[in-house]
Specification:
The complex is a heterodimer of chains A (227) and B (180). With 227 residues, chain A is mainly α. Chain A contains 8 helices and no strands. The longest helix of chain A has 26 residues. Classes of the chains: A mainly alpha (227), B mainly alpha (180). At the A-B interface, helix 1, helix 2 and helix 4 of A face helix 2, helix 3, helix 4, helix 5 and helix 6 of B.
Amino acid sequence: MNDQHDDRFDEWLAREAAGYNRPPEPPREEMWRRIEAARRSRAPRSAPGGGDVLPFRRPGGHPLRPAAVGWGVGIAAVLALGIGIGRMLPRGADSTRVPVATDPSTPLDRRGDAAPSRALAVETVRHLARAEMLLTAVRTGPRDAQFSAAARDLLATTRLLLDSRAVTDPRTRALLEDLELVLAQIAPADGADDLDLVVEALEERDMMPRLRTVIPAGPMAGLQGEL
Amino acid sequence: MDQPALIARVLEGDPVAERALYEAHVDRVYRLAYRLAGDPDLAQDFTQETFIRVFDRLKEFRGEAALSTWITSVALSVAFNGLRKAKRFRQREVALEQAAPVTGGSRRAEPDLKERLARAIDALPEGYRAVFLMHDVEGYTHEEIGAALGVRSGTSKAQLSRARAKLREALADFAGEWRA
């Protein structure tokens, strides 16, 4: 009798579920144009010796963990290069360049054409995208012991960015400073109550909208290099 | 053009072959992405990202499974990762709905059956939901699902069974609908 009911339920379920998220006609041409455009724009990133051109997250991997180490090492290397170059240059006087006026509202550090500055700007955005992912996970749960480890990694990078002269945009610096405070709260968090307080802090500081303002739009945006 | 020849031409950078590969698989990828995401923008994003990855990683395809299965596994990976990020919105909606007062089981106070079914499917764990949608809604075989998810077909069957059990439980007060 139960089997009969189960069969009826399965038949009913399959019939009714056909209307769940029923797909419309695929926008084939539009998607193809975007795929071509994305591939063209990503192609120059291909390194001559191989390696991933595209930013793949490991299949089935945890969104917060798999690339954390490599990403952290990468950004640390870029920061070290940027900071090192910055320290080697005499402050306030560059004998090889004619001074150029810069727009103080320019986001991040896009002033000048030095490759380390561009790399730092890119890495800063990627760092903020990674932070947004962590904070999203913290807000939505389930509570995960890995939050603390991820927060510590991000906290170290946030402090490196703040200590460097790479980020000159006041809005981004303020965001990094608030991020530092929030990450410092998450890093030692060991219980649901602690993380609830973090969530409150996120709301109070409008962290998520501010992060999303800085990170380019799109579901994979900002994480293209290590997903 | 047979599949190995098509793949070879794509790997050589032939744009006609790239388009042919896309045309052959885009509907299936988009349908799955849409079923999982329930949102046209997300479904487009997932589909695009899937093909970008497919073209970039095609050289890694060894032909051990059908190309369509390999593409499906890429699509699932993209969709799962994207949905985890978007999950916040879904959870907010569910939390609001659960906060609504429940009164005496009156059918008048209940949302309509389709809506309840949709919510019950939304609430399934990620793996169960994918297996249920792929098998019962999109018609994939357990062998295809197992290959795409990297599990045995028996695992796919077990997950489908658990998914149905959870849905039956969630919809128990509508039992008359299918027992009639």
